[in-house]
Amino acid sequence: MSELAWDEYQRRLREEDAIVFVPVGAVEQHGYHLPLGTDWMMARYMARRVAAKVGGVVAEPIAYGATSQIRTGGGPHRCGTTSLNAETLIALLHDVLVGIGRHGARKIAVIDSHFENRFFLDEACHRAQDTLALRGHEARILKMLYAERINPETMAAVYRGMGDPPGLDLEHGGVLETAMMLYCHPELVDMSRMVDEARPDFPPYDVYPVNPDWVPASGCLSSGRTATREIGELLVEEFVGHVTDAVRSEFR
């Protein structure tokens, strides 16, 4: 979107009824071997891949996301993890969506890559839809966590040979994210910095202030040692397919 002149963007909306994709991620630690921008980079990658398939336009990503939680993202205490509070994230996405909709976009797809964003993005989409409707703009908004669903066959392939796979609950900085980054942004992955640590044994509750000692020193919740580019390709291509199917289903 930012690379288009304003009149070309207007033409895409008016003549092509183009879908506008809004990637949303986070700036959050992902261990020693992955960059802080892993989430927003993957959201942007997914949006670009799907937009290329359906003739869409990709808006600039919302890089910052909701606060990292101990049991899902390792918590907010490691250097570089920079988050928005809930009200700010809701207001930011709301304003972006309204700005896109008021210029004539009728189809908007919000592509999320950070689990903690989930319900705040829901609220932002609700509010934006209400605002646009009150102002007389017709727009439909799809919001999707791109990794919402993984086929069992794919998970079996990802964890093949692992006697005790961590499961999705501990997949922060682990095999899935490492493999996908090896496929999409290999120049940003340093496998030599991978460390093997005991997995955390979280209780079924949260405590505030958060206790950093619940999380391994690297910030990862499981090891990405077995990640490969081939596993990343398997995952990414499946996710691209899921998002493409959703977009085509809702924006016919």
Automatic annotation (TrEMBL):
Record protein name field: Creatininase
Family to which the UniProt record says this protein belongs: Belongs to the creatininase superfamily.
Any Pfam family matching the protein: Creatininase
Cofactors that this protein relies on: Zn(2+)
Sorted UniProt keywords: Hydrolase, Metal-binding, Zinc
One Gene Ontology biological process: creatine biosynthetic process
EC annotation from Swiss-Prot or TrEMBL: 3.5.2.10
